[in-house]
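idk why but the lab printer keeps eating my pages so im just putting this in chat instead. protein + flavin-adenine dinucleotide:
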Amino acid sequence: MTIFSADTYICDSEKLIASSKKTAQVDNKVIYLPGTDCVVRPKVSLAGYTSYRVGGPAEWYVAPRDITALEASIRYAYEQSLPVTVLGAGSNLLVSDCGIPGLVIGTRHLRHSYFDPETGLVTVAAGEAIPGLAWEAAEHGFEGFEWAVGIPGTVGGAVVMNAGAHNGCIADIFVSAEVLCEDGTLRTFTSEDLGYTYRTSKLQGSKNIVTQATFQLQPGADPAVVTATTKHHKEHRLNTQPYDKPSCGSVFRNPKPYSAGWLIEQSGLKGYQIGKAQVAPRHANFIINCGGASACDIFNLIRHIQHNVKENWSIALEPEVKMIGNFQIA
Ligand SMILES: Cc1cc2nc3c(=O)[nH]c(=O)nc-3n(C[C@H](O)[C@H](O)[C@H](O)COP(=O)(O)OP(=O)(O)OC[C@H]3O[C@@H](n4cnc5c(N)ncnc54)[C@H](O)[C@@H]3O)c2cc1C
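predcted complex ->
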């Protein structure tokens, strides 16, 4: 029985299609997008593009390096009637073993960053890695991003998820994001537009693609001090969370006033395993891939945890991880 279907971003821009004069070239099923250095490839395994190291193939995969190539990718999807799924670092995703139909757009090659030493404003492309950005901010003596060093996602994913740690989160420093909207226009969204709450933004489930974001940090601090705080946060993570095994970080949102990890631990599930997926002995809100897990193992463990916590506590745990594709109940 199919119980979960694709959480996809489908862009159907009239504007983009209207501007398309040339058609893409097909060469042994590899598609060269006209006017760009962009190549759309068929049947690309996504296991290597997700932090769980599981998941079947993208029907089509493309990783644009700039906005022109991103627009061309979306135009191609529109022309071919393909649904679009956006993939950052894949660190909050469970991709089904069956893979993802349509076009998967990987943002990891959208890269640039600018630190303004006068204002403390930092403008970064969607594909920049959050840990690298935290270290770079520290080296520049910019305070305000030390908490983010242990979050292995991209800027785009962090803006969409309102990623956070150590009592800090994206909403605290967010100024604006440049977003490629469904109608093909590039718009600037403010914090108000995104309606940030705990690990949530209005971008989740929308058809918009974050291309870059601007954050407000505090410049002029001693780089050695900021680096030391950043290092402290990183070490704390390494000591308390299972970074040595593939995972997606916390699987469930914390149902306040409880922590999901505590509820799972109290339900006797620490170390519980289905196939090669295990509730991490070190942190019960992590599910780790012990080596060779399938997406189905992880999915069934998620369901098992939800069932047990509901039985014991009458609390419905809500997954923070985004599940993409079709899953079967065992
Ligand atoms: C070891 C580990 C520790 C973690 N610790 C934390 C933590 O402390 N705090 C925390 O908040 N999270 C944590 N996470 C989860 C994860 O890193 C964050 O949610 C992160 O923000 C996801 O970013 P990503 O680029 O990997 O997004 P992905 O996982 O690739 O995507 C997440 C969602 O965002 C969408 N998306 C991604 N990029 C874009 C874009 N440019 N435009 C539009 N939509 C986009 C995707 O379609 C998907 O719906 C952890 C994960 C791991 C593996």
